[in-house]
Amino acid sequence: MSRHPDPYRDVDAQADPAQFVKALELRGRDAHHARLRHRFLRFIPVRAGDRVLEAGCGTGVIVRDLAAMVGRRGRVVGVDRSRTVITAARRLCRGATGATPVTLRVADGARLPFPDAAFDIALAVTVVLHVADPLAFVKELTRITRASGRVAVQDQDFGTVAVTHPNPALTDRILAGVAARIYEEPYSGRRLPGLLRAAGLDSVRLLTDVHQDTTLEPFTKGFLERRAENAVRFGIVNATVAQGWLDGFTRLVAAGAFVFTMNYYGAVGRKPR
């Protein structure tokens, strides 16, 4: 079993890896997240005929988007460390990527099995947060990108979560406490432009977007439930307090007073000639 508190560091070592497949696909179907990723892919931009590498591709949600954008003249490669999610990605992408050449394989984003300058674009979406050495990771994405090609990273920032609750002090304690114990850098989103520049990229651009939910949709509900579960696991609160905290959100939804927002930051840089 993985001993790191961030389960995405080693999905295959978890007690139920299949739950991560369900969670990734649930997020992929969320309308707000679909808007966020589509806007980011256009911001990069991804064009017809591009050769694109996605590191940390998960179940292939974005691979499917990319295939539609690059078309049959392009190429999409997705890699992930988890055999569980790559197996799921192969199944879910089968028949969903049209005539676009798509390759999915198990590989570590810090040691990509591709030659220098093999791709026009290398990207990673909601991955940097989970990486042990973000700068080394971005440098590896840069290595496999051609001169004048683009490296793009998008991440959420847990320092920007805003959610209504009858007990805001308890909410802050749970959200900040859990994020600090799981992630080495919970505020990764705001760090992305500096990270790209440190990796030697230029012409760095930033897109800031917001995930918003006012009805406690399935993705948000799952996010808050996992925060409550981890708050108990880390000894921040007991199980009774955690359940009472979750019940507070339910009451707000019934009153039409629920608000949940979190910033997403997308940074794109160009590899110098």
Structural description of this entry:
This protein has a domain at 7-158 and 185-208 and 264-270: 3-Layer(aba) Sandwich (Rossmann fold). It is an alpha/beta fold and 273 residues long. The protein contains nine helices and eight strands. Strands 1, 2, 3, 4, 5, 6, 7 and 8 form an eight-stranded mixed sheet that branches. The chain is globular, with a radius of gyration of 19 Å. Helix 6 (168-182) packs across helix 8 and helix 8 runs antiparallel to helix 9.
Summarize the structure.
The chain is α/β, with parallel strands linked by helices and 273 residues long. The protein has helices spanning 18-29, 31-43, 61-70, 83-93, 134-143, 168-182, 192-198, 218-233, 239-254; strands at 51-55, 75-80, 102-106, 119-125, 145-156, 162-163, 202-213, 260-270.
Distance linking N and C termini? 44 Å
Rg value: 19 Å
Strand content: 15-25%
The unreliable regions are none
CATH class of the domain at 7-158 and 185-208 and 264-270: Alpha Beta
CATH-level-2 architecture of the domain at 7-158 and 185-208 and 264-270: 3-Layer(aba) Sandwich
Assign the structural class, choosing from mainly alpha, mainly beta, alpha/beta, alpha+beta, or little secondary structure: alpha/beta
Multimeric status of the protein: single chain
- What is the helix content? 40-55%
